[in-house]
């Protein structure tokens, strides 16, 4: 049965951006509301442009019911072409992946997105000609390989009026001055120098125009192997120890070449191991961390858990949730990366040793580890502008291949790997463990991950500074000639109005106080156990064990036997690491000092807001962290109003206001995945609908699965 909402009388046209062209469209397309088994939905028009796929119904035209957290560029029913992950057609109730030329056109179209949205369109009532045009158009424009200059980025840059690289307090690291300022800020300028030798890219096209090396490294050395084998400075610790990175020499070489290169490296190591430099520890990340292929495989499995077609699928996977989650290995990769960052922090902080990260190109895992170490050790990197400057420095200017790793041009699946997403997942672990230490929110990180697929910003659409510079010169429609002027993603006003931007700032951020020991109290947060794995392979300690002290002894004994085989891992951290980790965690947290993530057992969680935000069954109404935040903000506002009254009575100037987040007044109706799942308009189903269980399996089947079921959901406070 189809609940038909009458097609709109009036014509609905898409809102096009400058440079955006309508390529094909189909009328009388029926979009299903995903969350229940009934075929409820709405009629509308499906269009494909050179920027996005969009579904337009009569609601699209009205401004009523507008969410307060609204993206100005991408609407609720818009999918940028770069955000399309896979397209399926449904033929006689069977799903089939769609690629290339089609002989037969499907009756239903399912689009899976990289931001984990799933769209279902029924084409049964659409004219055959329009079906052919829209389906082949969507497949062609979103899946076939394209040239860099064919990206919408260039169409937009040439047509949009007065685009400027808004700096927004974010240091772009595209000038020598920026590097010198950073050296001065970190007090690294005594032992390190910013060099101009790569101006005109005469050393290497992979290196940025300007970078920093130890003062003792000569220009001849840098030129000799196009920058390979040269330690490049990332950051200096308060005690003088520095974090460095180096692109390694290719492994397959003939003997004489590798001997020469070894002698060259020995010379470099000797030079930077003498005074005034600290001792040097090298770490080859290609052997100590998972490969890019492993990361890609794990993420591909992991995201499948969240690309849910319907309610029945959700409850079917829910029964096996923990085993499915563990089998992806994604949380284990996050744990290993965080553990590596803690090891590096220990060398810098406690052993006063320089750390040199080595990787083939020094633009993938080097970026992840160096960024994490700085977020953990430098409180400036935990402010919004500091974090953005850090991403510019280590990733954008540092030469991470966003174009290849995100496969924006659909050239080669072999190069694809979610390295930047891995970083954001790791930073999220820190943000949710220590909320007051960060000026930005998890919503900021979620929006940043979505911006990877918005091709109006140049930030995530080039492989290197050289590639951007060589493609910036071009014909602009408005000025007839002259370079393209691209937008940077850090100008958040392009995507959000001021009200929505408030969601990106943390109102509970503990700004750097004047020294006062009474402020150093720590907060302990409870687990959200359904989003973390209870069976992570890591060794527990007596001091901060797997179970909390208040856990019931009976459960401890029963579960302890069951999981003991999992927690004795060959990947056991060395004693010095364990000692450093435990001693830090036994002290109160200084939100402006060193921060170490908790990585034992279920401390590593799933980033619920990013991965579950489009799944209604996974939402908790009137609950979750947002409900707590709402109560705290109420209290803060009350304290503030009392402060204002006191200031007025004493005739003092009124103190600064609290950065309030709009729409938190009605927290009882908010979803735990706010602000993406807003006040629900649809009817809310109970958390465990009995009818669904009956549909899923009969009682005998459940009895057979009893062991597995108990194992997966055993209660742990």
General description of the model:
α8 (292-304) runs antiparallel to α10 and α9 (311-319) crosses α23 (690-696). Residues 476-480, 517-529, 535-572 and 679-717 have low confidence and may be disordered. This protein has 717 residues and is an alpha+beta fold. It has 25 helices and 14 strands. A hairpin with a 4-residue loop joins β7 and β8 (118-122). The strands form 3 sheets. Strands 4-3-2-1-8-7-5-6 form an 8-stranded antiparallel sheet. Strands 11-12-14-13 form a 4-stranded mixed sheet, sandwiched between helices. The two termini are 44 Å apart. The protein is globular. It has helices at residues 58-61, 128-143, 152-159, 176-185, 219-224, 255-273, 285-288, 292-304, 311-319, 321-328, 330-349, 365-377, 384-396, 402-405, 419-433, 442-450, 465-472, 498-501, 553-563, 575-585, 608-612, 625-649, 690-696, 699-704, 706-713; strands at 22-32, 41-49, 52-56, 78-80, 84-91, 94-97, 108-113, 118-122, 192-195, 211-214, 232-236, 242-247, 280-284, 354-359. 38% of the residues are buried. Helices cover 36% and strands 11% of the residues. Among the domains are: 22-144, Pleckstrin-homology domain (PH domain)/Phosphotyrosine-binding domain (PTB) (PH-domain like, Roll); 176-280 and 289-504, no CATH class.
Q: Can you tag this structure with a few keywords?
A:
alpha+beta; PH-domain like; four-stranded mixed sheet; 36% helix; disordered C terminus; cytoplasm; sarcoplasmic reticulum; MTMR12_PTP
